[in-house]
Amino acid sequence: MTNLKSTNPKSIAVLGAGAWGSGLASIAEANGHRVSIWSRNGSYTLAEVVENADMIVSAISTKGVREVATQLQGLAIPPKAVFVTATKGLEPETISTPSQIWQETFPSHAVVVLSGPNLSKEIQLGLPAATVVASRSKDAAELVQLVFSSSRFRVYTNSDPLGVELGGTLKNVIAIASGVCDGLQLGTNAKAALVTRGLTEMVRIGNFWGAKTETFYGLSGLGDLLATCNSPLSRNYQVGYQMACGKTLTEILAHLEGTAEGVNTCQVLMQQAKQRNISIPITEQVYRLLQGEVTPRQALDELMLREIKPEYSY
Ligand SMILES: NC(=O)C1=CN([C@@H]2O[C@H](COP(=O)(O)OP(=O)(O)OC[C@H]3O[C@@H](n4cnc5c(N)ncnc54)[C@H](OP(=O)(O)O)[C@@H]3O)[C@@H](O)[C@H]2O)C=CC1
Ligand SMILES: O=C(CO)COP(=O)(O)O
């Protein structure tokens, strides 16, 4: 069996002290690495945490990524530092993924995407989980794999960073739909149909942007889809569930613990789908529900009564 406790501790700067930033910091710390955490209200400055960092791990919500990346641009980042992004969203103005923002801001540094079925509350409890680290740089991905692998966290490498990142991002919209499905008590058959067709929709969007189909059938796609569509711990699932129980989006977001990225992702996807004529019927109904244009029951009827068609169009 591999001994994963590090004999070569690295300096890890974690940006974002939310649920996932704290979770990732604990995993690296337990593996013997030197971890310092930055957040807007924390006691360290950005310059202090990134000084001498071997790895800069961002678990900032999408809305803050560019702002923090730009602040870092003015600081002395060690040339060999590897950026790791764990954010699952899309920037509305540019449709960039978080890793694209990091790579654009730091073109000569390696960027690694970390994404998988990783509900942070379960990880905090020490329950076992697996994830994926993906990069164009094999060496960087393997370094990140080594830093985070433990007896409770199994880390796989992957060479399709876009597919890995989009899996974690796109499933959030389907998780909202799954929450609606459970809130309306539509049963197991309906849930299976929703998640399976949701995966088809994820593959369609992902392929359009250049991600590989097979990546969506791995941990960062199907794996994360199953976790978030079946767990009340998922904030995105909670948004859908509570809407099905009659709450408004504003009421839900006011009391939600943490970020539900699917709400913004859904808007970005709808804009793109309209402009480029991509068929994303589930996302479209989630969008209309979030906009207050349909009730959960109307959204269900719209999906069930779409024009009949083959399962796959060749
Ligand atoms: N929780 C989970 O189970 C998982 C979450 N993720 C993803 O990780 C990301 C963060 O999620 P999570 O930790 O749960 O969310 P939280 O809401 O708990 O934390 C959000 C973090 O983002 C920071 N942030 C938000 N806006 C800004 C900004 N403008 N500038 C700087 N920092 C900002 C917050 O900073 P501050 O602390 O200063 O308020 C906080 O650290 C999301 O993209 C999510 O999808 C991925 C896997 C698992
Ligand atoms: O991405 C997650 C688990 O992998 C967390 O999901 P939520 O953001 O919906 O809580």
What's this model, at a glance?
Keywords: Cytoplasm, Lipid biosynthesis, Lipid metabolism, NAD, NADP, Nucleotide-binding, Oxidoreductase, Phospholipid biosynthesis, Phospholipid metabolism. The protein is an alpha/beta fold and 314 residues long.
Walk me through what this model shows.
With 314 residues, the chain is α/β, with parallel strands linked by helices. The chain has helices at residues 19-30, 46-50, 62-73, 98-105, 120-124, 138-148, 161-183, 188-209, 213-216, 219-229, 235-244, 249-255, 262-276, 281-290, 296-304, and strands spanning 11-15, 34-38, 55-58, 82-85, 111-115, 129-134, 153-158. The chain has a seven-stranded mixed beta sheet with strand order 2-1-3-4-5-6-7, with helices on both faces. Helix 4 (98-105) links the parallel strand 4 and strand 5. The structure holds NADPH dihydro-nicotinamide-adenine-dinucleotide phosphate and 1,3-dihydroxyacetonephosphate. 1,3-dihydroxyacetonephosphate (13P) is lined by residues 88, 117-119, 168, 172, 175, 224, 227-228, 234-236. This is Glycerol-3-phosphate dehydrogenase [NAD(P)+]. Pathway: Membrane lipid metabolism; glycerophospholipid metabolism. It holds the Pfam family NAD_Gly3P_dh_N.
Note the topology:
Blueprint: E1 11-15, H1 19-30, E2 34-38, H2 46-50, E3 55-58, H3 62-73, E4 82-85, H4 98-105, E5 111-115, H5 120-124, E6 129-134, H6 138-148, E7 153-158, H7 161-183, H8 188-209, H9 213-216, H10 219-229, H11 235-244, H12 249-255, H13 262-276, H14 281-290, H15 296-304
Parallel strand pairs: 1-2, 1-3, 3-4, 4-5, 6-7
Antiparallel strand pairs: 5-6
Helix pairs in contact: 3-4, 7-8, 7-10, 7-11, 7-13, 7-14, 13-14, 14-15
